[in-house]
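Sample 3 of the quickstart, ligand zinc ion:
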Amino acid sequence: MQNKNQTGFDEALERFVKILKDNDLKYTFQREVILRAIVASDSHFIPEELKLKLSKEYGCPHIGTATIYRTLSLLEEAGIVTSVSFGANGKKYEYGLKAHHDHMICDRCGKMIEFIDEEIENRQKEIAALHGFKIVNHAMQLRGICKECLQEQR
Ligand SMILES: [Zn+2]
Ligand SMILES: [Zn+2]
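Result:
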């Protein structure tokens, strides 16, 4: 998957430092490593996958699950990550400062396929305008079963 005009580390850092300050929390080395790993990531991940990445690619095997969960929720509050729940399997996170896109989510394996369709985007704006509604944000999800899981079913 290619990089989609990701907003860089500096803006993410600025937002992160602000939300930490608002919550009387310190900007620690561990939190910085978590932020770096997320800004560099280009896919959707569950907290356990992030933990593995921090250990394998960032040489930080000691960052605990609790720290990761707490940091993710702060990052989400700051808009630096967004999350999508996928049924009973929990939540997947992704870097939130990249270009807008929508998701297809496989209920079997949890795979997320990203897509963007100008016509859908424009129709949403038109429909909102008809209702005098100002869109601040939207998240569209198509739920179903992916190609690979459909093939396994046979
Ligand atoms: Zn699947
Ligand atoms: Zn996505």
